[in-house]
Amino acid sequence: LSDRLTSTFKNLRSKGRLSEADIDATIREIRRALLDADVAVPVVRDFTASVRERCLSAEVSGALNPAQQVVKVVNDELVSILGGETRTLRFAKQGPTVIMLAGLQGAGKTTLAGKLALDLRTKGHTPLLVAADLQRPNAVTQLGVVAERAGVPVFAPHPGNQGAETDDVVGDPVAVAREGVAAAATREHDVVIIDTAGRLGIDALLMQQAADIRAAVDPDEVLFVIDAMIGQDAVNTAQAFLDGVDFTGVVLSKLDGDARGGAALSVARVTGRPIMFASTGEKLTDFEVFHPDRMASRILDMGDVLSLIEQAERAFDAAEAEKMAAKVASGQDFTLADFLVQMQQMKKMGSMKKMLGMLPGMGQMREALDNFDEREVDRIEAIIRSMTPAERENPRIINGSRRARIAKGSGVRTTDVNQLLERFAGAQKMMRQMNKGGGMPGGMPGMG
Ligand code: GDP
Ligand code: MG
């Protein structure tokens, strides 16, 4: 017998990989979530393939069930593509730090110029805004308004002409950008933010203009601003700006909308450039450092995946699982004390019922938890505490009179004691069946 148990134990241990069926089932759900979030189709294909690869070689942690394991790999991969640690602005060692903004019209560049200026000003910097969008009537005025709200000065081709909008502002945006940077140096501004023109679609001339501005002022950062609602177009747009202008970082705007943020993943994956900031509204204070982990959760739309996993790890004490496995391996029988430990684990899991339901492939477990009454655990505990050590070791000796005594001692009915002993016998049987190589069903024997 002991031999067979030892080989079962080995079996369990060498099962330390996720099965392809487990992985594929969960990945199907992930694929759907990504497509729903408007991640570009080729990116989804690429991403799921690499996640699958990683799952196949992943070490299995005893604390998580297969679906959670896959979700953890997916989440880790998402966070790593989205940037892991967020990168902050690089400041010039000498002279003013030059930050150039690029992106389609309406992406949120001008608004971002104000947000960045305000943020930098509150951090003790002295930013100057430069109006190098001379394409759209009103663009200079708009930057002027934004600058005033941010409490910073603006360098414009026609200072003082605000409100006098007629046709396109005449002038050379490259020259304005160059003069703006020079003015910043003499007026001792430590940061210059250059707002540029964009078109509704990708436009070769405008792209060239942005490239020329870049060449003229040699910015420390070129921030590509992209509307999070852009969806599937994100990849083409980002690629065009990468090829046409090149950029050092990405700002995702309009994250206050319903967009699930698939654009973030598409852009990060295709360009390899870090997403640095998030724009979350029209007010200048609606601006924050980009959080890859939050974005990963938003893209997956499965609640806070990370905290779920942490909770699962806590609830399913890995050490407890190890002890149980060792016990099975050593040929000892599963006792009422073990049963009680399992019930207590279940109780902890109960509090995360709602979150579990949000995970793919967790429907079954959720059902089991739905049928699980937490007060039941307290009752079971009371009953087991009223047993003598000998009875706990070997419940077969618990005859009628012992049952009556235990019931009285724990304040329950004799039928409750009977029920517990039946459930325990069932759990014990299930533990023995593990010998036949089934492994712990859902990691939780004794359920239901
Ligand atoms: P630009 O053409 O790239 O300079 O874009 P603008 O800064 O002019 O922004 C275009 C529109 O989007 C304006 O109406 C802004 O108020 C709005 N906008 C910009 N950023 C955000 C944002 O993060 N959230 C929301 N809801 N609106 C924004
Ligand atoms: Mg603008």
Automatic annotation (TrEMBL):
Part of the signal recognition particle protein translocation system, which is composed of SRP and FtsY. GTP binds at residues 103-110, 195-199, 253-256. Composed of three domains: the N-terminal N domain, which is responsible for interactions with the ribosome, the central G domain, which binds GTP, and the C-terminal M domain, which binds the RNA and the signal sequence of the RNC. Involved in targeting and insertion of nascent membrane proteins into the cytoplasmic membrane. Binds to the hydrophobic signal sequence of the ribosome-nascent chain (RNC) as it emerges from the ribosomes. The SRP-RNC complex is then targeted to the cytoplasmic membrane where it interacts with the SRP receptor FtsY. It is found in: Cytoplasm. Residues 302-329 form a coiled coil. This is Signal recognition particle protein. Residues 274-287 form the SRP54-type proteins GTP-binding domain. Keywords: Coiled coil, Cytoplasm, GTP-binding, Hydrolase, Nucleotide-binding, Ribonucleoprotein, RNA-binding, Signal recognition particle. The keyword Isomerase does not apply. It catalyses: GTP + H2O = GDP + phosphate + H(+). GO terms for biological process: SRP-dependent cotranslational protein targeting to membrane. It is an enzyme of class 3 (hydrolase). GO terms for cellular component: signal recognition particle. One of its GO terms (molecular function) is GTP binding. Its EC number is 3.6.5.4. Belongs to the GTP-binding SRP family. SRP54 subfamily. Residues 436-448 have a biased composition (Gly residues).
